[in-house]
Design goal:
4 copies of one chain form a homotetramer. By secondary structure, chain A is an alpha/beta fold. Chain A is built from 12 helices and 19 strands. In chain A, helix 5 packs across helix 11. Chain A is globular and about 60 Å long. The N and C termini of chain A lie close together (10 Å). At the B-C interface, strand 15, strand 16, helix 10 and strand 17 of B face strand 15, strand 16, helix 10 and strand 17 of C.
Chain lengths: 343, 343, 343, 343
Amino acid sequence: MKALVKTKTVRGAELLDVEVPKIGPNDLLVKVEAAAICGTDNHIYDWSPWAAARLKLPRIFGHEYAGEVVEVGSAVRGFSVGDRVAAETHIPCLTCFQCRTGRQHTCEKMQIIGVHTDGAFAEYSLLPEACAWKLAPDMSTELGAILEPIGVAANGLFKDRIDGLSVAVVGCGPIGIFCGQLAQGAGARQLFLTDVNAYRLDLARKVLPAARVLNAVEDDVLGVVREATEGRGVDVAIELSGTQPGTEQAFDMLAKGGRASLVGLPPRPVTLEMTSAIIYREAIVYGSTGRLMWDTWYRVGGLLKAGAFDPMPVITHRFPLSEYAQALELTLSANAGKVLLMP
Amino acid sequence: MKALVKTKTVRGAELLDVEVPKIGPNDLLVKVEAAAICGTDNHIYDWSPWAAARLKLPRIFGHEYAGEVVEVGSAVRGFSVGDRVAAETHIPCLTCFQCRTGRQHTCEKMQIIGVHTDGAFAEYSLLPEACAWKLAPDMSTELGAILEPIGVAANGLFKDRIDGLSVAVVGCGPIGIFCGQLAQGAGARQLFLTDVNAYRLDLARKVLPAARVLNAVEDDVLGVVREATEGRGVDVAIELSGTQPGTEQAFDMLAKGGRASLVGLPPRPVTLEMTSAIIYREAIVYGSTGRLMWDTWYRVGGLLKAGAFDPMPVITHRFPLSEYAQALELTLSANAGKVLLMP
Amino acid sequence: MKALVKTKTVRGAELLDVEVPKIGPNDLLVKVEAAAICGTDNHIYDWSPWAAARLKLPRIFGHEYAGEVVEVGSAVRGFSVGDRVAAETHIPCLTCFQCRTGRQHTCEKMQIIGVHTDGAFAEYSLLPEACAWKLAPDMSTELGAILEPIGVAANGLFKDRIDGLSVAVVGCGPIGIFCGQLAQGAGARQLFLTDVNAYRLDLARKVLPAARVLNAVEDDVLGVVREATEGRGVDVAIELSGTQPGTEQAFDMLAKGGRASLVGLPPRPVTLEMTSAIIYREAIVYGSTGRLMWDTWYRVGGLLKAGAFDPMPVITHRFPLSEYAQALELTLSANAGKVLLMP
Amino acid sequence: MKALVKTKTVRGAELLDVEVPKIGPNDLLVKVEAAAICGTDNHIYDWSPWAAARLKLPRIFGHEYAGEVVEVGSAVRGFSVGDRVAAETHIPCLTCFQCRTGRQHTCEKMQIIGVHTDGAFAEYSLLPEACAWKLAPDMSTELGAILEPIGVAANGLFKDRIDGLSVAVVGCGPIGIFCGQLAQGAGARQLFLTDVNAYRLDLARKVLPAARVLNAVEDDVLGVVREATEGRGVDVAIELSGTQPGTEQAFDMLAKGGRASLVGLPPRPVTLEMTSAIIYREAIVYGSTGRLMWDTWYRVGGLLKAGAFDPMPVITHRFPLSEYAQALELTLSANAGKVLLMP
């Protein structure tokens, strides 16, 4: 089969002919129909320090995907050939403390598809049954391919309730826009989004016309937020930029007693006035990584079924797998929403 | 001033000329602009055992209202003449355990406006500062007058989150329809409502076109619910009928691990198979009365500001105060949504 | 091996020689060292309607047990020969909605050891890896054998926090006494227990000298509770009797805004004044069955490690397996605490 | 009356004869019987930048106290002359969003006794009724005087449950030791405390003999914690040092999914590797200031009534008010537990 393989410890990747993977007793073999490009894939393609610290080469990468089950392992009980599935990319051990107390997504022995095991920028991919999510019959495979990053947004946003609360999102990439859509779908009182990238600000304004989309540097963000919230600030702030100024802005916007979710991964330490940012404010700060299995998936599925939001406009580009280089360069430029590769 | 007074221990009430009330240091004097009729008012008018056990006559009744502040007591600090306000009808003592731990609405020495103190079917009414809610500038007084019963719905529905969950509401009176609207506004996956009254079923279908509105007796309610929820049942059930069959139906519809809120007040004991209804199901059952002060009000305010629902179509009739008899007979017939009296 | 087998649809059971069970890929074979008698076992021995509705004969019963792993299946990864384990008796399917959202203990396809599969009143017993709990090195096997019913108590009690709250327990059987011990270990303000059985009242008084242990019928239970709680009632009530008067007493004792856990299984419908018992009280009522997997086990393990309680005095009798009839007659009489069978 | 007054913007204070304060309608006049010295009082005495930024002189300081009510305002309903009371030092406005949603302790217009109003290092002090807590009849006034700082500990510790969880406390000052006592009283699995001050380490070891008390710099803190928690780290970490290394240590000790409360006030910004400290760990971080009114007080009261902990040994010194200088120099040296001034 064709597969996009990271073979060398430099920028780039190669489209190679490789063996179709062989399934174990608990695996599904999935014919990949659509795979989305994640920031992680950019790290791998670009061979950042993050990637260099984690990958053993060669490695087929890509992990946000959906497709059809074409073979099932001998011990699989919940899935059949012909099922359409999306992939949860975190592979849990099922036996550690985290896995045994409802936190498989932070398994102490976590493996990640496309990082520690071969992934989905390929015609076929292995999926452990424990990581398979059956698609609703009326859901497109393209939507299935982006359920995983929508889940990242949901995991950050839904640490607690949203109904009637004001929400600010720092970062207008795909996950930021999904956060905004989920917040509106769940009854947020008001929605503010900030970024500094013109493409992403435009996309956010187009997809979320009722929100206040602000340039994080050029606009008077705090002034706007305070004026719109009777001076209190927002009840919920979601930090997706992974930057020092983004993190500061998230706390500056936050009301007393509000909650902040930190989702973006700062590559460097962040310096904060803890006393004013968190302590006197009695903020609740949630670290957020991956997606709660499987509550997040059910919750997103429920909001999609209700028609509470439509994530498809966030998919801005589609490429055949053979044009992977163009697709990855585009996502590295940040001038895109969600980008799909179609094997 | 004109006021509707319960003077005798029989059905009926009288429109009398009485003194405008004199305010104490912590009171507001409110010019009543719209007052809604509650089931409690029907009990009082009809002189039911519930009313007979609680009221000392004469008593001006009515408690769901909004209007303009025309005078403030010497110790009032948060309100001014000219403010437009809605009334929270539960008067807390502010010193008991309930009041001191965030549960003023279940104060151990609770008094109720229009039951224990003179109420709002009158040109002017006294409102303790602790019970006053300032209306947003863009909110109509009519909407202000029904915030209190919307809060009853919110208190029952929002015991926990709703986003992405399926919801069933037993009873399509105004509070049931508000529950449905709030649930949809907060991102409920699916919505089911049941009743046996044709007028109310019609009103629910008109106001909530996306919901499944079912005749509780004639339709195969459980079959519909199970088919639509992959056999699981609903995540949230709200019981508003206060009846034996309504309570049974609420639990029958409920999924394992689901939650039920009991809001309707059964006048007689209810008999339940606890083992199957609650215990093996690991249901969580919430008794719900009044409205959490003031979280419920802020939450409803946030959903209204978001445009997540529009309660105005639930107001089906408006009468001048002088036509009180016609209005009260109409609400007693149950062939109405919310009915307003305009002093 | 020797095994206690239910062979006939009448009172009784037979000690037979049977084959040692053969393990599947995900199973452990456990040499049973201690097994406790549960109320379920009494139902089976006595052949109650509950048992007749559930069991296919012949069936080895018994499910509360601990022992040593003597063989492991080919796919087992978390356990080894020589490990000492206790059994979680609810076998989850791991693929249903309940299992996938942290509620394996209410699996939609639940099977129960000793009811749907052969159990532990035998020299050896099969235990799925998903149901195995490794014993701490310093924990006795006898204590291991009663972790399961302690978990029933913990699941009912720890629906929410206990620290600083007053607690009432209706029923002084072993689970009631465990509830009391766990409540004291977790910092309960005050503890009240009620029963009508003299043996159990005595045992409760002996094991819980700091608690108020009251005869549910002869003592002025409500008077005592109200006097000790400034008239408010208890914050937490645990119903273990499964009776009409016990359920009424649990709610009568409960404070406004308090929570009640229903754990005992009423064989008949219960009739309640919902309005006063639950609704005006804004009670939160939890149905409780089995044990949350595995949070409950970790929590109990933590309290045991802290030395916060000592369940061993609740074990009042030990019998060799051959004296099963005497042991089961004793537990049926209710004049015992926890009773062990030693294969 | 005699009162300790901050009169000049330099180190020190003066014992002066001043007028007994005059009560307003909602005030109590309290004869101060015991007052404890808080870190805030050290700031005021020492005239730190914190104090200089907040106080207008002259000001009677001191705010942790208990005594007897000798006069009540005309509008006071919940207290009488002769009542023994302790003081909540945060004066809420009762009308802002925070106050109206159960968060009076983070009132948007908060005033603090002994900072914004005259305080309690005096023979008499004014106490708003909204800040008064009635002492149980069997509670000593000295214990009453330290309920406020015990509440600081409780507010940080009890953000969620403790039963069966492992707890680490960074800082062995009085609040740190109270945290440890409360944690043990609420059933913590294990307890670790760290500090660098020899006096405080000794005091912690004496008061909490079952805890692991470690020198934060000299001992292998992480090694000890990991070894004792099967490599997982603690479930709960409380940061009281307000320092860069203390904050880092709190997160280093924390398990995945664990929670950290930040209580100590860092005078300078803190720099953190957010990705590893909080995000990948999915930590929940609580800013914590003051005490939840009045849940914290009831919870502490319940644990005291249960005999779950005894805070009295944390009071290490008592001085007459006239020896204020000696007392304040002692607390500034940090070589003391809680120090009382007796007017």
